[in-house]
Fold this sequence. Notes:
Elements: H1 10-19, H2 58-62, H3 65-70, H4 76-79, H5 82-91, E1 97-102, H6 114-118, E2 124-128, E3 135-139, E4 154-157, E5 160-161, E6 179-186, H7 190-193, E7 200-206, H8 209-212, E8 214-222, E9 226-237, E10 240-251, E11 260-274, E12 277-291, H9 298-303, E13 321-324, E14 332-335, H10 337-340, E15 343-360, E16 363-379, E17 383-404, E18 407-429, E19 437-460, E20 465-486, E21 496-518, E22 523-534, E23 558-572, E24 575-594, E25 608-630, E26 633-648, E27 650-655, E28 658-663, E29 675-684, E30 693-702, E31 705-706, E32 714-715, E33 718-730, E34 736-746, E35 754-757, H11 773-776, E36 783-785, E37 790-799
Parallel strand pairs: 4-7
Antiparallel strand pairs: 1-6, 2-3, 4-5, 6-7, 8-9, 8-37, 9-10, 10-11, 11-12, 12-15, 13-14, 15-16, 16-17, 17-18, 18-19, 19-20, 20-21, 21-22, 22-23, 23-24, 24-25, 25-26, 26-29, 27-28, 29-30, 30-33, 31-32, 33-34, 34-37, 35-36
Amino acid sequence: MIVHRARGSASLLVLCCALSAAPSSTSAQTALPPVTVDAPRAAATKPVARRPGVRSSARAARARPSVIIATPAVPPAARTTPGEARANLYQAPNGQTETTIDRSQFDNRPSFSVGDVLRDSPGISVKQGNGPRDFGISIRGSNARNGFGIRNLVIFDDGFPVTQPDGLSRSDLIDPRAYAAIDVIRGPSSALYGNYATGGALNFRTRPGGTIDGVEYGVDGGSFGYLNNYLAAGKKVGKFEGSLFASDARGDGYIQNSWFNTQTVNFLGTLQATPDDRFTVKFINNELSTRLPIRLSLNQYYQNPFQAGCEAAGVAGCGSVPLFNNGFNGPRSSVTAVQAGLGRNDRRTIVGGRWEHDFDNTTTWRNQFVFDDRNINQPTGSTSSIGDFPSYNYTSDITKRGEILGMDSTTFFGGFYNTLVASSDTRNVMPGGNARLGLLQSNTFSDTTNYGVRAREELKLTPQLMAIAGIGWETTHLRGINTAYNYGTSMFPAPTISPTTADRQFQNTAPEFALLYKLNSEWLFRGRVATGYGTPQVGNLFVVSTGQNGNNTQLKTQRNLGYDLGFDWTPNNALKFSATGFYEFFRDELVTQATSTTAAGVAPPNASYTFNAPRSEHRGVELAADWKFHPGWRFTAAYTYLDEIYTEYTENIISGANTFGFNRVGNKIPGISPNELTARLGYDEMSGRLAGLGAFVEVQWKDSFYMDNANLLKAPGYELVNLNVHYKTDLASEYFKALSLYLEVRNVFDRTYVASANNIGNTVAAAGVQNPASVLANTTGSIYAGSPRAFVAGMKVAFR
């Protein structure tokens, strides 16, 4: 479904109604109001607008509809409420390159993870992380170099932030079954979203209770022991609307030592307490227990991609980790993931509240508070990370609709404060199985605080032309102390304690400016220049290039300046095509790459480290198409081209007592696939005895990409084909509303492919010559294989 948006003239509202049937899975931001039925605005419960200063009853407001409809020059505030305008900043900010993935794109398939859904948007790339639903999500290559989790973009759930103050997000708590739509906002966005929004933002919108209007139960099951039971319940009763989603998913995994068990709860409730006050409550909880395999070298991947037979070390193609036999020093034993019991046992709990108050029908004040607690126990290698990371996030802002010199205006201004204080331990893992823990390897105390203000103005210069300007200012304070424990060669644990402290403060400002020009009913043109910034994480300051604990506190804020130019073409209700070209200039880009075992087979205590690349450039093209070329038939496609290079960077590599420098100017930034495409052709029978029966074929293509800064070693690309058959019918029953059935074959041709490849570091021989690709191909800690052919079937029943 195409999501059209506009601001301003009444004529455009008429145009919106004429285009409301236009289809699309993705669309760039336009200037027409939303027509999405299954994904209404967060402020859809806003009461009928009143004149400033006049408190009208709902009955009086209902008595005047004919006056509003008959008057051509309706005031802007009567057309779009300030609350709705504020919600747009999370869903489809004017001037931003944006895609909305509607539920119709994933409702009739077994969507296990966010990776199954986000591929429908251009500019998005996903890679497997450390867990069944832990996916690295990259917008325009922004997070492709990160080893785990999500960085360089900000994530919201119904407008509530699920990115913590240190910039880390994880997709474990995201079950696609809970959502009505996903908004993908691409490009530098720190003026709107602050720290870490160098790549953009994602907003996941749960299904409103009134849309569910009852109870739905579903179950998916298939290959590799996969089983997901889920429940959705929702209702709108009087002034309250609420929805609850819960799921229980488990499976054996397709790689040895990758079984999982995870439960998710997601609740959203909104109360229209008075005509002027709305209260919204958000609750998310995710429990995860999973085993983890070891990331392989490229050669190991070719030998044994699914790590079969790796119950014991020494089998070809099996990864291993060296563990201290006594848990703190001395001899080590190399063991497999199965022998060590590697995995994760995590909990994530988010509780949020929002109060919106209308001073009149032009001005809304919003206050929002979120408590977010991430509790981890992660024996993922030779060490285990253990800690609790509670955070607090408060925002307050004003939205005002009105006129400036006779031009429609929307003004936003607000402030924010968020903080995270935590103490986390890194413990040695020792032989014995079940992630048996040895002595303390290090402790990190961290304190991350962000605070600042944001302002934004949207001005309708003419009925066809809108200008948007915004700016954000933010202070980030990072404080921490890392205490490393070295037990030497003594048989008695009397460690040498080595503390490293950090106290860094960063000041950042991010302006943006955009223009939207609606030429006619078919063409919308958009241009944008904007900035983004992202500070280091406290943990980055304490890991050096060898993977050892040390002083890396010189890290700087990464900044990018981006230019977007694009258009949307909608010649009729059946076709939507959008194209965007972008060029972004980075300074001090934060790049993360994996550390590896030493020549003596000793694993470093940290799996990755982060450095600044002084200058780099990211440029590319994003294309999206949605074409209903014949009744029942639909073709959708999302294509991304990326060309990202270093323009100033000399990499220093240590070999023994010597340090060698290598100029990387002109080299491709590793981890970036230059071409990615998702295309789908489907048919659904619209009438007759077979009404509700449909099928589609989907192709996913990911090009090969470099794994190292010297551009010597490439991870192979792949093409996957998925097939889906589905059926949905309404039920004429007192208790049942609808039944949905589907069967999907994923990776039809059983292609072996790389689902994730972390960047690896280059090495040098004694003479200072870089080791060739044949040597780098033995560097471990990088690759997870993707799933072989899998069959998944599911059903869903909706109750009245």
